[in-house]
Amino acid sequence: MTAEIWDIIIVGAGLSGLSAAHLLRKKDAKLRILVLEGKGRVGGRTVTTDIPAAGGVDCWDFGGQWVGSTQTHILELIKELGLETYPQFSTGKKVHHMGGPDAKVRTYRTSIPVLSPMVLMDLTQLLWKLDRLCATVCVQDPSKTPNAVDLDSMTLYSYLEQHTWTAELKEEMGLCSRSVFGMEPCQMSFLFFLMYAAAAGGMLRLLENTPGSAQELKIKGGTQQLSERLTECVGWKNVRLGSAVTAIWQDAEWAKVTTPTETLLCRAVIVTCPPHLAAKIHYEPALPSQREFLSQNMPVGHMIKFIITYQKAFWKEKGFSGEIVAGSSTDCPFSVTFDATSPSGNAALVGLITGQQASQWSSKEAGQRRTAVLSSLVKYLGAEAASFIHYEEKDWAEEDYSGGCPVNVMAPGLLTYYHPSLRKPCGRIHWAGTETATEWCGYMSGAIQAGQRAALEVLAELRPMTLSQEEKEAVRYNQTVKGPNQQSQSFIFAYLSTRKAVVIAILTVSAALLLAQRQNALQKVKTFLTNAFSTTKQNKFLL
Amino acid sequence: MTAEIWDIIIVGAGLSGLSAAHLLRKKDAKLRILVLEGKGRVGGRTVTTDIPAAGGVDCWDFGGQWVGSTQTHILELIKELGLETYPQFSTGKKVHHMGGPDAKVRTYRTSIPVLSPMVLMDLTQLLWKLDRLCATVCVQDPSKTPNAVDLDSMTLYSYLEQHTWTAELKEEMGLCSRSVFGMEPCQMSFLFFLMYAAAAGGMLRLLENTPGSAQELKIKGGTQQLSERLTECVGWKNVRLGSAVTAIWQDAEWAKVTTPTETLLCRAVIVTCPPHLAAKIHYEPALPSQREFLSQNMPVGHMIKFIITYQKAFWKEKGFSGEIVAGSSTDCPFSVTFDATSPSGNAALVGLITGQQASQWSSKEAGQRRTAVLSSLVKYLGAEAASFIHYEEKDWAEEDYSGGCPVNVMAPGLLTYYHPSLRKPCGRIHWAGTETATEWCGYMSGAIQAGQRAALEVLAELRPMTLSQEEKEAVRYNQTVKGPNQQSQSFIFAYLSTRKAVVIAILTVSAALLLAQRQNALQKVKTFLTNAFSTTKQNKFLL
């Protein structure tokens, strides 16, 4: 048997792998590039599906969905591929339910939920602290962050236990953690959380749909088109579906890549699948133990996404935006919903069952899950929610060659001990995938950045002449370390310099003075106020 | 091609797999049992190797080595297989070096190192707290432990940050963590740490070589003999070496097990390899996502073990026991050494380079590592240490089909969310390996207990008539949950009721009063003393 010979084999036909292939071909059209994909489709953690809707059939994203105007890598690709974005609808009342099934369901219209003064004060001081910490994080090399070892030795849960004093805020942060990572605060390193936020330009960007944030825009026709159009650029003949890589051998001359049916030879391999899947591939010679330890410390999150189509967007008519956030203490299975009405006007809601709620609900019957989702929607938006056209869901833990979504997090200690192995090539093997990104890590944009970075790495080895001086420097730069991340610096201060900040500050101080007398929280309030006032000169927080 | 047909296939020819096979055959000699092993030898994490020694050649254990008189499962097996134990030599001065390369090297003769009064006080209160917590842990179902979620949401590091107040004790505990788990305190859940200690009957048992503790006895001729003799019982023809399992398929009738060269059919499979290796097997249908998430949250430790043979045990002649403990802040690469003189009198020392020190030192050249080890031994035991016969080491991270040692730990959140999947069979697949044990989890004895438990599970399905009523109940019992672990209850109180406790208590109080005045530690000391005295009535700590 003669093995097929390629220049570069890419493992995974998601955004990272296809972006790598696309850049490689743009740089040198003669390069023989093959993309191997375990699934029967391209797109990885993005998938766009047709479902019945008011106007017949329309398509929705059941994986990665949103992009933000600060996500330069994906915005450039959208433009290049001739796709269009449109804003996430967010006008109207948002629903907020925390504090147990019987707690009052509140509505609000700003980007900060209606909270009691005490919780608002708690939130303000926490955001302040988190964004100040974020600004100190070195995304390229998190071990260079001040107090890195301490920050990486505790879970996000432990930090919140120490730095919040209201149960409501802890519940809010649990919801944030689940919605962003599909993981509970106890499952990830606090430094990882900070790094992830810093790579996005600040924590609030992860949560909001305001300009620049992660949930700002959507792509007309769905995000899977990105991968489909990239595949067209790369050539469908160069992308093999249903071809899961089982082993990668390396010797002085070749890398040998095997699937259950084929053995292929090449000069370089780019592995783009998430770490827990990359760990299932058999490597010979074995990967360095540090790399093995790395993938043992990066579990993947759990999310179930649902889309419900309706005859009309009854929530809009009732003054709702469609956005609901519900804490895990309520009976509601989902963490968040948003309006998902399509560009052609087909009314829909999208929601996410996340983290441990996803794990609990995934073991139940689909019908039971749907009933619980609908019953919560009826509670929050009204009886019209029960009269839907179609309910469709996707449990990413059940998807072959994914096993979870949206991202692999890092357990405590990983950043301290194993981070250097995250992007470091192992012989002919280069690592991509959104987990290796330094800008919008964990997002589609990060997947593209990582794929392009790995492509440049491979070119620097195989075709150095195709690289510009700038690109060569980028490769070198990515293999070295930069200082503290500048992007997120003073993000909270910009945020707080709006009128909202003044309102929060006034509320906070009033609440502090009122509550201190009757809640025995005097000491904590005093500490907070001292901190707040002591930094006034620098950042004009209260002035 | 006709596939071979077996009744039961066991993945892994370590102590767990072979104990399972042995029990299965004892119960029904007609059962066709096949053990498949990736390595070229039996024994798993135990391996006994001949090396040059004073009397020519002698053998030493480079993996699991010690047993304790409370480890009933392994003691019974030792007896059954006709092997003998002998005590770990511990007479003489022990060396203790903590607090930086220039800190004073101290010696001591008790089981508690010579510590400053402040550190001793800190240690006493910490042990007190830890053992009180241990006594509340439900090993069978740790989620039933009081405050389980809180305890599982923090790392051991976080607990130590909150409950110790001297840097020296933190360093001591780091050393304990590395020596026991091959892991740093920041890498594991605090509840896991407690559960592990509870499964051993208390924390001190993990650390000591006193009667009942983990380092009490050794096996004449080495521990690998256990696996070799078990293989003789099972029949060498039923154990295939160099046969790594790559995939397990299941359908209504069969389990199909594949290696790179064979496909085998059977009725039940027992997977005994550690979780990070079990995760590399391809399963069809896919395992439940909860099981996949479990193995993503159980990283393995890192240890390098060395044996150095000498003409004579010069340390004994100089009054040393051979036991050295050295903190990571010193220049010493190893964490601990012990006397390893063989039963036939060949002098040797055994030592462990552990946790992150193992990771750092494993990337260096073998010669450089050896020089550093010997230079530390010269420093602690005298110039004679440099004149050795042979230096042999084993880096378990480099061993194929191990990738680490001694045990897989549990990251925060695992026990809260995924623990039910640890022993729960997945169709025809049953899970063993020391990580699944409830008594001496992580030790050789636990491996045997787990293998026997899995064997009984399989018999309950395939040959229920071979089981006694008691065994049937054991299977049911293991599939349910018991209350708080009784074994470790009041362990610390028994420990502290010795004269040592009185000495510690007197030292502690004196130190407290002296140091409180000049170290601004008044509040902490007061708290400790209040706690100590307030529990006096119940446990006679100070009386």
TrEMBL record, chains A, B:
Cellular component GO terms, alphabetical: mitochondrial outer membrane
Binding site for FAD: S16, V245, E435
Catalytic activity: a secondary aliphatic amine + O2 + H2O = a primary amine + an aldehyde + H2O2
Membrane topology qualifier: Single-pass type IV membrane protein
SUPFAM superfamilies hit by this protein: FAD-linked reductases, C-terminal domain, FAD/NAD(P)-binding domain
Subcellular location(s) per record: Mitochondrion outer membrane
Pfam families hit by this protein: Amino_oxidase
Keyword Transmembrane: no
InterPro entries named among the record's database cross-references: Amino_oxidase (IPR002937), FAD/NAD-bd_sf (IPR036188), Flavin_amine_oxidase (IPR001613), Flavin_MAO (IPR050703)
EC numbers, comma separated: 1.4.3.-
Cofactor: FAD
GO molecular function: monoamine oxidase activity; primary methylamine oxidase activity
Domain Amine oxidase: 15-459
Keywords from the named record: FAD, Flavoprotein, Membrane, Mitochondrion, Mitochondrion outer membrane, Oxidoreductase
Family the entry assigns: Belongs to the flavin monoamine oxidase family.
Protein name: Amine oxidase
Species of provenance: Monopterus albus
